[in-house]
Design brief:
3-stranded antiparallel β-sheet; 4 helices; 4-stranded antiparallel β-sheet; alpha+beta
């Protein structure tokens, strides 16, 4: 699912025809990918299983690295034992997304061999749905990408015309990334 929908982008661009719907949809997909690449996060929940190794462990804590976690459905220790939800907690306790799993004092992370891994099945992502500022940034960036189709901005450096006028290359509007940069993952 995308951070915005075609109807919202068309409303933003004041487009009522369906002629460019395929291109607009592609712009939404590209804009979302560009935002995720810059920020290092995904802003929609996805159900998946991720795997972790001994180097992700610090005492009783399993650090999730570059993953944002919302919920755990099944946690399997490195020795194949299922760890019940009553025996671990997600951190930070009062905020999402979660960035580590901490075992209770009676439990420890165990591995049967060097190839063993901890399996965490759950809901992954920064949030269940994209926050409003991410949605707006996606709409703005999609709009910018769409408007590039008719521009002559295929140059990547300033051009000086015959009468000495300097034409600067088109760039992604700065407010887009300024709006979302506070979400950038800092590890």
């Amino acid at each position: 699912m995308a951070y915005t929908i075609l109807a919202d982008l068309k409303a933003y661009l004041d487009i009522s025809v369906t002629t460019d719907d395929t291109l607009l949809t592609a712009c939404i997909t590209r804009a979302q990918a560009m935002l995720e690449a810059r920020i290092g996060r995904v802003f929609e929940a996805a159900t998946a299983t991720n795997y972790f190794h001994v180097e992700d462990i610090d005492g009783k804590e399993l650090w999730l690295g570059s993953y944002d976690l919302l919920t755990v459905t099944t946690l399997i220790n490195g020795n194949g034992t299922v760890i019940d939800a009553a025996n671990f907690r997600l951190e930070p306790r009062n905020f999402t997304p979660k960035f580590l799993i901490k075992l209770d004092s009676a439990y420890s992370w165990e591995f049967t061999d060097g190839d063993s891994e901890i399996s965490v099945a759950g809901t992954w992502g920064y949030s269940a749905t994209a926050p409003g500022d991410i949605v707006q940034a996606c709409i703005r960036l999609s709009s910018y990408l769409y408007r590039q189709k008719g521009s002559n901005s295929d140059f990547d450096r300033p051009i000086v015309t015959g009468d000495g006028v300097t034409i600067m290359p088109s760039d992604i509007p700065r407010d887009i990334f300024k709006t979302v940069d506070h979400y950038i993952r800092r590890i």
